[in-house]
Design brief:
Order of helices and strands: HHEEHHEHEHEHEHEHEHEHEEHH
Number of strands: 11
Distance between the termini: 44 Å
Bound molecules: phosphoric acid mono(formamide)ester
Length: about 350
């Protein structure tokens, strides 16, 4: 029987599949080839990715370790194609590539590419695949990373694509770094299983929430809370996924009553770049969904406050110095987990584990 590969299915048939079905075409032998969605990752893969990130982080502490890591992919090149603004995702992928020795190229503004001469986006990306071995893409166009993954797989240069943030769809590598941060935060308190995690803010338009809510279905007895004004509440597609995974959740609007109940609070900003009419978001009062310094008194001693960033006013700056605020740690974890992901894509995970066993034990 034909394996589930993108060269064995038409674009029309692939685009009709649901997300878990699509995910089967994106992994090869339980290893991601393209990285487009959270549905590609199961519990074992998340555990392995986290442990690999920790090994890379420890190896990178020494000059000899950095020499080893930097030699792994110094024969490969990665293209960073970011046509939506980004600080953390762009720079952490850039740094992750540097750690592993990959040379990088970048387009951050389509107005500097031949798209301005009328070239299609598809042809632009195909051009990148002629020069690079890995494409890392952020795009405002829904479904574009899927389309390009199918298209490139059906050329003579089937270069892997990593989704670094796709429209309102998904941001799978953000979710990987969020899970890694949760793994590390709950290392001494039984791990992620059984924890209560609240998503707060703009849950209707946040792609990080969609990806993380799904990744958390890999853990046992995790209860998810969705805390937002009704206009920005979580969308039915996310709830459908939780229902089919049998995950307990609660929809709430009283933020203060949820704070003492949970082990992690995942704050998000208002995503007004997706407003359909000018000023639409400004008309919604979100001030009851800000985490203030006073809220620290309500928060459990062992709980953590997270945020994918960038933030606006939804977390008071005074909160940053509280040990439970882990959002700056999240930023750095992004570099390690993305290095682990790239190493996995290039099948270098075993080599890194062997180096760690021989030199770091
Ligand atoms: N969290 C995140 O995606 O940040 P950037 O938009 O700065 O990449």
């Amino acid at each position: 029987m034909d394996k589930k590969r993108l060269f064995n299915i038409s674009w029309e048939d692939f685009s009709e599949l649901n997300l878990p079905e699509k995910a089967q075409y994106l992994n090869h032998n339980r290893r991601p080839f393209h990285v487009l969605m959270a549905q590609q990752f199961d519990r074992e893969m998340l555990d392995e990715m986290g442990s690999l990130a920790t090994r890379i982080r420890r190896i990178a502490k020494s000059k000899a370790g950095m020499g080893f890591l930097g030699s792994l992919l110094n024969h490969k090149r990665a293209m960073l194609y970011f046509t939506q603004p980004s600080s953390r995702t762009f720079l952490s992928f850039y740094a992750a590539c540097q750690i592993l020795g990959l040379t990088t190229g970048e387009v951050r503004d389509a107005s500097t590419s031949s798209e301005m001469k009328g070239e299609s986006r598809e042809d632009s990306v195909r051009t990148f695949s002629s020069y690079f071995d890995l494409l890392i893409m952020r795009t405002q166009i829904e479904g574009f990373v899927e389309r390009m993954s199918w298209l490139l797989t059906n050329t003579e240069r089937p270069v892997p694509i990593v989704n670094a943030g796709s429209a309102r769809d998904q941001h799978p590598t953000q979710a990987l770094l969020d899970v890694y941060t949760l793994q590390r935060s709950f290392e001494r308190t039984g791990g992620i299983d059984g924890k209560r995690i609240a998503f707060v803010g703009d849950l209707a338009r946040g792609r990080t929430v969609r990806s993380l809510a799904y990744l958390l279905t890999n853990y046992g007895n995790v209860k998810q809370y969705f805390v937002a004004p009704h206009q920005l509440q979580v969308t039915q597609d996310i709830l459908d996924q939780l229902d089919s995974a049998g995950v307990e959740y609660e929809i709430a609007s009283d933020f203060e009553s949820i704070i003492p109940e949970v082990d992690a609070i995942y704050m998000t900003r208002i995503q007004d770049e997706w407003d359909k009419t000018p000023g639409e978001s400004r008309a919604i009062d979100v001030s009851d969904f800000y985490f203030t310094a006073d809220h620290l008194k309500l928060l459990r001693h062992s709980a953590v406050i997270m945020h994918p960033l960038p933030r606006r006013e939804e977390i008071a700056v005074e909160v940053d110095s509280d040990p439970r605020a882990v959002y700056w740690r999240q930023v750095r974890n992004g570099m390690w987990i993305r290095a682990a992901l790239i190493a996995t894509l290039f099948r270098l995970d075993d080599e890194i584990r062997k180096y760690y066993e021989l030199n770091m034990r």
